[in-house]
């Protein structure tokens, strides 16, 4: 009654954005089909993992003040193992040095343009106040891996197939976030954790098209939409992103490691 009475007297302040934004629905999944393998090239093996997907419907009641808020998905990688073994020669590995060495707890997985957002199409929506009615909208994102792995040792000039195994294990935290464009106030609305694993066994002596076999997993572990939100990592919000920071190493069975592809950043 107090608020009704105050409103009649013109003194009822509207709720802040923080108090009024509502997540109507949120869901996340990884597509059920297994990782597919492409041996159409004599130079590289390609594989495509199933898609991770996140979707949310959000309601923002009227915004009285001249505020601008962007709501959307921000993602960070907090663990990466990506090893390609070449028999007794050694292995190549894509690595994130600061994450590998424990200097940071996560690294941005932004598209590299729209920091800190994962993307800027379906991934975000911006509400510009003042508004006179509810704003209802959905934001969605998807992610998967589609790399190329050389059949031959990456520091060799030969394409002779020597690849024997691919192992990958990556983990991510994905946040649904609202950010005030003027003040940078940041509200975590939802937190999702997910992981993508795979093991491909390769028989390099076999003909092209018959070499690689997916060993595990046939179906990925499904993402977890957390009941209690986790604070967003500082490193999820700033440069560099994972694609620009990663480095390809060659680690021979004997001898020193070699940088094959340095980081872009």
From TrEMBL:
InterPro entries: FAM78. It comes from the Eukaryota. This is Protein FAM78A. It comes from Muraenolepis orangiensis (Patagonian moray cod). The lineage of its organism: Eukaryota, Metazoa, Chordata, Craniata, Vertebrata.
